[in-house]
Specification:
The complex is a heterodimer of chains A (217) and B (941). By secondary structure, chain A is of the alpha+beta class. In chain A, strand 6 and strand 7 form a beta hairpin. The radius of gyration of chain A is 25 Å and the shape is elongated. Chain B has 941 residues and is mostly helical. Chain B has 48 helices and no strands. In chain B, helix 7 crosses helix 8 and helix 14 packs parallel to helix 16. The chains are: A alpha+beta (217), B mainly alpha (941). At the A-B interface, strand 2, helix 1, strand 3, helix 3 and helix 5 of A face helix 2, helix 4, helix 6, helix 8 and helix 10 of B. Chain B: InterPro entries: AP3_complex_dsu, ARM-like, ARM-type_fold, Clathrin/coatomer_adapt-like_N. Chain B: Belongs to the adaptor complexes large subunit family. Chain B: This is AP-3 complex subunit delta. Chain B: Keywords: Golgi apparatus, Membrane, Protein transport, Repeat, Transport.
Chain lengths: 217, 941
C-alpha cells in the first residue's frame, strides 16, 4: 500500500502532502522536515531508496526522485514493488506534465487543487488505480472542465473593474452628491489600503481614487 | 464577531491571491500573515453565499495541508458545503474532509453519511468517484456500516472508473467493518475474471493487501490467481499476483510446484526490471526449495549487482540478504561483488553490503573478516566507519560472543577498534570489555594487557570519545590487578596528570581503580612480611578465615611461582611501597578539594585509607610502642579484609534477578526517605561513642523483619566478629564458602582445542547452578537465578496483537463466504488471545518498576531511561558509589552529618541484605565501608 505522497522543493518547502492514513498536521510538518533532512544529505547518482522505519514503522520505505527543483517522495510498505513505485512516480510526473504543459514548480504551487485531483485519479486510499498518464490526464480534464467555468476573477482584476466602474460612474454622480462620493471613495481607499497593499495591480485602483479626490476636494 | 459584510465577499481573496501574498510576504512575517488570513477566513467561512464559503474553505484547506494549521474548528463547514449542488464546491468540501478529518475523533463525520450516500448513488460519475475517494480516506466503522449497501451496488457498476474505485474503497471498508465482507466479497471475487485491466489491477491490489495480513483464507482463490499469472501480460497486475503467491506458496506445497514454472518463464522472457525483481523475491522468499529456480534467481541477482544503476544494485543486495538466511552459499558465491559494493559511493549500498558481509561471519572466518573490515573502516568516512565498527561489535557480541573462539584475539581487536580514528562506539566497546572480563575468565590476562596499553597511553586521554573505553580499561586494570605484571606502572598510569581531562564520572572510576591497585600492593607486601612471621595470630583462629581467603592464599602461592607475579613480589620492598603510597597521596591530595562529588568522595576515601595504613608501613621501620603494633595489626586486618572483598569475582547479573528477590516486610519502597527521619528520630543515637553509634543501627538492620534487637553490645566489638556474626545470621545472602574454588576449577579453558562448545551462557548456567547447589542452605522459595538472557522477543509480540485480531475478523468473514460456516469455528479457535505473553510482559514491567522505584526512592537514577538492563547496571554502579560516599562522609566529616547519612545508610543496608544478587556484588563494597568506617572511628577516638 502507498502510505503517502509528498512533493517538496529543494528548500524543504512542501508543495503537496497527502497521507493515506490520518496524520495530525503537526506530525505531517515534522515528517516533512525529517524527510527533507535525509534527502538533502544524499548525493546525486545514488540509489533512490531510504529506509523509513524510524519515521513510519517497520517495513516502510521511501523512494524519492528529483525533478528540477522538486523532490517527489513516495512512502510505501512491503506490498508494493520498489521499482514499480519508481515507475509510478514517473507516471505522476508525466501526467502533471500533460496537464500543465511543461510543468514547473509554480504550476504545482498555484494549482493545489488540481494536483490533488490528479493524484486522486492515480492513487486512491493507498491503492494504485491507474498507471497510464493519458487516461489520468483525460479524466482530470473531464473533471476540471466545468470547474474552470465557475472560477471567479482574480482579486486584482476585480479591484480594477471596480475602480473603473467607480471612475466612470462618478462623472454623473458627482454633481448630485459630492460628499457621498467622497465618503465612499475614502472608505474603499481605507479598506483597500488595509488589505491589498501588496497587489501591484491595485496601483491603478488607487491612482483612479487619487484622481477623484484631487479633482473634487 | 460580525458576519461577513458585502465588502468582504466583494474583495475576498481567492486561493491564488493567498498563495501570491504568501510568496510575496517578506521572510519572518509569514506567521503574522497567516494569522491574519485565518482571521479573514473565519469571517468569510460563515457566509451564506456558497462561493464565498468555498473560497474560504479552499484557503483554509491549503493552509492546513501545507502550513500545518489546525482546521478542526471548520469541520462542520466542510460538511455544510458538501451538500452544495456545484461540483467544484463539493470537491473543495470533500478534499478538505479527506485531508483534515480524523476518522477516530471528528464527530461531525456522521453528518456526512447522508451526503455521501446521496453522492454514491448520484448519476454523475464525478460525484460518485469523489464520494468514493473521500470514503476511502475518512472511513470509520459507522460510515462503513452505513454505506456498505451503496458500495455493494457500485461493485457491478457499468462504468469502469467507478467500479475500480469502488473496489479500492472496499479495502478500507473491510478493515473498518469486517461484516461488510459477507455482503461484498462474492462480487469482489467475480471481478477477478473481468477482462478490463483497470478493474483487474484494482481487484488484485485489493487481494494483495488482504493476503498480507492473513493469507490462509485466500487459498481457495489460488486457481483464479494462477490463471491471471499465466494469462495476464500487465506488469502491475503480475507484480501484485506474485506478491499474493509469495504469501500463499508457503502454506500449500503443491501450489509452489505449480507456480514455480510460470514464474521462471516470466523471469526469463519479461524485460521489466520491476517484474523480474519481484519474481526473484518471490522465489527466494517462498519457493527456496526449488533449486533450479533459486539458481536462476541468484543469477538474475548477479546481473542486478553488476548493473550501473544504484537502485538495482541496492535491491540486488537486499535480495541476497533474503537468501542469506537460508542458503549462505549463494552469498559466498557473490562475495566479490558484495565486497566491491562495500566501497560504493552510495551509503545505502555500502550498508547493505556490510550487512551481508556480517551474515557470512562464522567461527572460522571471523578473524579474517574483521581484519578486512577494520582496514576498510580506516579508509572510509567517519559515518560509515562507525557503522562498520557497530556491526562488528554487534555481530561478535551476538548471543554471548557465539562466533568468538579466540578471546585473546578478540580482546586485542577491541583495543584496536577503540584506537580507530573517528571511533564513536566507545560505549559499546567499553561494555564488551567489562562483559568479557566478567564472563570469560581465561581472557582476563590478555584483557589486562590490553587495558594496560589503553590506560598507559597519555594521548588517548585527550579524545572524549575514548573516555568510555578508558573507564572500562581502568576498571579492568583495577579489578584484575592480580594478573598485571607491574602494578606500580598501572598506578602511575591511573594517576597521570592528563587524567584531569577526563569527565568526573570516569575520573571516579580511575580513582577507585587506583584504590584497588593500592590495596593489592599493600596486601602483597603484608603477605611477604607475613612470611616473616609478622602475621597476627589472632587472625588465624578467627571465624572469618573463609575458603575465599584460602583460595587467595593458594592463588598467591601459585602465582608466586609464576615469573610475572614473582617480579611483583620481589619489587615490593617497604621503600617502594612507601613511594607508591606517597605517589597516591600526592596525586589525590588536591582532589580532596574537587568540586565534583564523585571525585571528591572517592579520593577522600583513598586518602582516609592511606592515613590508616601509612603508620603501619612506617611502623615496621621503628616499632617501639605496644600501642603502635596494636594499631598496625588492626590496620593489616582491615587491609586484608578489604582486599578479600575486592578480590571476589564479579559475575554478570541476570536481569530477572531483581524480581526474584522478595521485598522484605517493612520495607516500603515507595516511601520518601525523608519520612525515615521522623521514625529514626525516636531511636536513641548515642553521640560520640565510637561503636555504640553504629551498633544499634546495624542490629536493627540485620533484624529488619524481626523484632528490634535493642541489646547494647559491648563497645569493644571487633569489626571482624561483627561481620562474622552477620554472616552467620544471614548466611543465605552470602556466597557459600568454597564455591569460588569449585567454580574456578570448573572453568573450561578457552584455548582448549576440544572445547569447541564453550558456549558462554552454558558456562554461566553452570556457574549459577553451582553457587546454588553448594550453598549451605538451599532455599526453596528462591528460584534459581536465570542466566543473563533477557527475552526481549516476548514484548514485541504483544504490540501486533490488535491488528492481527482485526485481520482475523476479515479472514473469518472471508472463510465464511468462501468455505461455509465450518471454517469459521476453526479459525476463531485459532484466535485465542495469548495470555501468557501478557503475563511475562507484565512481569518484565514489574522488574523495571521495582528497580525504578528503588532507584527513585534513593534519588539516584534520573527519570527517563526505561531500558531495564541498563538501569539495573546503572543502579548497581551508582549504589556502590553512593554507599562509599555515604560512609566516607560519615567517617571523614564530623558527627554533624552522621545522623543524616545513617538514615540513608540504614535504608541501603536493609535493601542490600534483603537482596541476594545485589549483596553478592555489593558485599565487598559494604564490607569495605563498614570496616573502614569502624577502624577509622577507632583510630580517631
Amino acid at each position: 500500500m502507498i502510505r503517502g505522497v509528498i512533493i517538496m522543493n529543494d528548500q524543504g518547502k512542501p508543495r503537496l502532502i497527502k497521507f493515506y492514513e490520518f496524520q495530525p498536521p503537526e506530525k505531517q510538518q515534522e515528517l516533512v522536515r525529517s524527510i527533507y533532512r535525509v534527502l538533502c544529505s544524499r548525493a546525486e547518482n545514488v540509489s533512490n531508496f531510504i529506509k523509513a522505519d524510524s519515521l513510519f514503522g517497520p517495513d516502510v520505505r521511501l523512494v524519492y526522485k528529483t525533478f528540477a527543483t522538486l523532490y517527489f517522495v513516495f512512502i510505501f510498505d512491503k506490498s508494493e514493488n520498489e521499482l514499480a513505485v519508481i515507475d509510478l512516480m514517473q507516471v505522476f510526473v508525466e501526467t502533471l506534465n500533460k496537464c500543465f504543459r511543461e510543468v514547473c514548480e509554480l504550476d504545482i504551487v498555484f494549482n493545489f487543487y488540481k494536483v490533488h485531483t490528479i493524484l486522486d485519479e492515480i492513487i486512491m486510499g493507498g491503492q494504485v488505480l491507474e498507471t497510464s498518464s493519458e487516461e489520468v490526464a483525460s479524466a482530470v480534464d473531464a473533471i476540471s472542465r466545468p470547474l474552470s467555468l465557475s472560477l471567479s476573477l482574480p482579486l486584482s482584476l476585480r479591484v480594477c473593474v471596480c475602480a473603473r466602474a467607480l471612475v466612470s460612474s462618478c462623472e454623473w454622480v458627482l454633481r448630485c452628491n459630492r460628499h457621498l462620493l467622497l465618503q465612499l471613495s475614502l472608505r474603499v481607499l481605507e479598506h483597500g489600503a488595509q488589505k491589498y497593499l501588496w497587489l501591484n495591480s491595485t496601483e491603478c485602483f488607487f491612482s483612479s481614487l487619487y484622481f477623484l479626490l484631487f479633482r473634487f476636494v | 464577531m460580525t458576519g461577513p459584510s458585502l465588502m468582504d465577499s466583494l474583495f475576498q481573496r481567492s486561493i491564488d491571491d493567498l498563495i501570491k501574498a504568501l510568496r510575496l510576504s517578506p521572510p519572518g512575517t509569514e506567521t503574522a500573515f497567516v494569522a491574519k488570513a485565518i482571521d479573514e477566513i473565519r469571517r468569510e467561512i460563515k457566509s451564506t453565499d456558497p462561493h464565498t464559503k468555498a473560497a474560504a474553505l479552499q484557503k483554509l484547506t491549503y493552509l492546513h495541508s501545507l502550513h500545518g494549521l489546525d482546521m478542526s474548528w471548520a469541520a462542520f463547514h466542510s460538511v455544510e458545503l458538501s451538500s452544495s449542488s456545484a461540483h467544484s464546491h463539493k470537491r473543495t468540501a470533500y478534499l478538505s474532509a479527506a485531508l483534515a478529518f480524523n476518522p477516530a475523533t471528528t464527530d461531525v463525520l456522521l453528518l456526512l453519511t447522508h451526503q455521501l450516500r446521496k453522492d454514491l448513488s448520484s448519476p454523475n460519475v464525478h460525484d460518485v468517484s469523489l464520494a468514493l475517494s473521500t470514503l476511502s480516506s475518512i472511513c470509520n466503522t459507522d460510515l462503513a456500516r452505513d454505506l456498505t449497501p451503496e458500495l455493494f451496488t457500485l461493485l457491478i457498476s457499468s462504468k469502469v472508473t467507478v467500479r475500480k474505485k469502488a473496489i479500492a474503497t472496499v479495502l478500507r471498508v473491510f478493515e473498518c467493518y469486517p461484516d461488510a465482507v459477507r455482503v461484498c466479497f462474492k462480487r469482489v471475487v467475480e471481478n477477478l475474471e473481468n477482462s478490463d485491466l483497470g478493474i483487474l489491477s484494482a481487484v488484485v491490489g485489493l487481494f494483495c493487501e488482504l493476503t498480507e495480513n492473513e493469507p490462509r483464507s485466500y487459498l481457495p482463490l489460488a486457481p483464479e490467481f494462477y490463471k491471471i499469472l499465466v494469462d495476464c501480460k500487465n506488469n502491475w497486475v503480475l507484480i501484485k499476483v506474485l506478491k499474493i503467491f509469495t504469501k500463499l506458496a508457503p502454506l500449500e506445497p503443491r501450489l509452489g510446484k505449480r507456480v514455480v514454472e510460470p514464474i521462471c518463464e516470466i523471469m526469463k522472457t519479461m524485460g521489466a526490471k520491476s517484474l523480474v525483481f519481484e519474481c526473484v523475491r518471490t522465489i527466494l522468499t517462498s519457493l527456496s526449495e526449488h533449486d533450479s529456480a533459486v539458481k536462476l534467481a541468484v543469477s538474475k541477482v548477479r546481473e542486478f549487482l553488476s548493473e550501473d544503476d544504484p537502485n538495482l544494485k541496492y535491491l540486488g543486495l537486499q535480495a541476497l540478504a533474503i537468501v542469506a538466511k537460508k542458503d549462505i552459499l549463494a552469498v559466498v558465491e557473490n562475495k566479490d561483488l558484495v565486497v566491491k559494493a562495500l566501497s560504493d559511493s552510495d551509503l545505502n549500498i555500502r550498508l547493505e553490503a556490510l550487512r551481508l558481509v556480517m551474515c557470512m561471519v562464522s567461527e572460522d572466518n571471523v578473524m579474517e573478516i574483521c581484519r578486512i573490515l577494520i582496514s576498510h573502516a580506516l579508509k572510509s568516512d567517519p559515518e560509515f566507519c562507525n557503522e562498520i565498527l557497530g556491526f562488528i561489535l554487534l555481530t561478535c557480541g551476538r548471543n554471548y560472543y557465539e562466533v568468538i573462539f579466540y578471546f585473546d584475539w578478540y580482546v586485542l581487536f577491541l583495543g584496536e577498534m577503540a584506537r580507530v580514528p573517528h571511533c564513536q562506539k566507545g560505549d559499546e566497546i567499553a561494555t564488551q570489555l567489562i562483559d568479557i572480563g566478567m564472563r570469560v575468565k581465561d581472557a582476563r590476562s590478555q584483557l589486562v594487557h590490553v587495558a594496560r596499553e589503553l590506560v598507559i597511553d597519555p594521548a588517548l586521554l585527550g579524545n572524549p570519545f575514548m573516555h568510555a573505553v578508558l573507564s572500562a580499561a581502568a576498571w579492568v586494570s583495577g579489578e584484575y590487578i592480580k594478573l598485571s605484571r607491574n602494578p606500580f606502572e598501572i598506578m602511575e598510569a591511573l594517576l597521570q596528570p592528563r587524567t584531569s581531562l577526563l569527565s568526573p564520572s570516569v575520573r571516579a572510576i580511575y580513582i577507585h581503580s587506583a584504590f584497588k591497585v593500592l590495596m593489592f600492593c599493600v596486601h602483597s607486601y603484608l603477605k611477604l612480611n607475613g612470611e616473616e612471621s609478622l602475621i597476627p595470630s589472632t587472625l588465624t583462629d578467627s571465624e572469618l578465615v573463609s575458603d575465599v581467603e584460602v583460595d587467595d592464599h593458594n592463588m598467591i602461592a601459585t602465582n608466586g611461582q609464576a615469573p610475572s607475579a614473582s617480579s611483583v613480589t620481589h619489587h615490593l620492598t617497604q621503600e617502594s611501597l612507601l613511594a607508591l603510597v606517597n605517589l597516591v597521596e600526592i596525586n589525590l591530595g588536591p582532589l580532596a578539594g574537587s568540586n565534583e562529588v564523585e571525585v571528591l568522595e572517592r579520593s577522600t576515601n583513598v586518602l582516609g585509607l592511606i592515613k590508616l595504613i601509612k603508620p603501619m608501613i612506617l611502623g615496621s621501620l621503628n616499632d617501639s610502642e605496644g600501642d603502635q603494633t596494636n594499631r598496625e595489626l588492626k590496620a593489616s586486618e582491615t587491609v586484608k579484609l578489604i582486599f578479600d572483598s575486592c578480590s571476589e569475582d564479579l559475575g554478570p547479573v541476570s536481569v530477572n534477578a531483581q524480581e526474584k528477590v522478595p521485598i522484605p516486610n517493612g520495607l516500603v519502597l515507595k516511601e520518601n526517605l525523608d519520612d525515615l527521619e521522623e521514625i529514626c528520630g525516636d531511636i536513641k543515637l548515642p553521640v560520640l561513642t565510637s561503636f555504640s553509634l553504629v551498633r544499634p543501627q546495624f542490629a536493627e538492620v540485620s533484624n529488619s523483619a524481626e523484632c528490634q534487637d535493642k541489646e547494647e553490645s559491648e563497645l569493644s566489638t571487633e569489626s571482624t566478629s561483627l561481620l562474622a556474626e552477620h554472616r552467620k545470621r544471614h548466611g543465605l545472602y552470602y556466597l557459600s564458602p568454597g564455591n569460588a574454588v569449585t567454580v574456578s576449577n570448573d572453568y573450561p579453558p578457552a584455548h582448549d582445542p576440544y572445547g569447541k562448545a564453550i558456549v558462554e551462557d552454558e558456562d554461566l548456567a553452570k556457574l549459577t547452578e553451582k553457587s546454588l547447589v553448594t550453598g549451605k542452605k538451599p532455599i526453596q522459595s528462591k528460584p534459581r537465578p536465570v542466566v543473563v538472557k533477557f527475552d526481549d522477543g516476548e514484548v514485541t509480540n504483544v504490540v501486533t496483537n490488535r491488528t492481527r485480531i482485526k485481520a482475523d475478523l476479515i479472514s473469518d468473514a472471508v472463510n465464511e463466504v468462501l468455505l461455509g460456516d465450518e471454517a469459521t469455528t476453526s479459525s476463531s479457535s485459532r484466535r485465542k488471545p495469548p495470555k501468557s505473553r501478557r503475563v511475562t510482559e507484565d512481569s518484565n514491567i514489574s522488574i523495571v518498576k521495582l528497580v525504578w522505584e528503588v532507584a527513585n526512592t534513593m534519588g539516584m537514577v534520573k527519570r527517563g531511561d526505561v531500558e531495564p538492563q541498563a538501569r539495573i547496571k546503572n543502579m548497581i554502579a551508582k549504589t556502590s558509589i553512593k554507599v562509599i560516599v555515604g560512609c566516607m562522609v560519615s567517617t571523614g566529616r564530623g558527627t554533624g552529618r552522621i545522623k543524616q547519612w545513617k538514615l540513608k545508610h540504614q535504608s541501603f543496608l536493609i535493601f542490600f541484605y534483603s537482596n541476594a544478587f545485589l549483596t553478592k556484588i555489593l558485599r565487598s563494597v559494604v564490607v569495605i565501608n563498614i570496616l573502614v568506617f569502624f577502624s577509622h572511628w577507632n583510630w580517631l577516638c
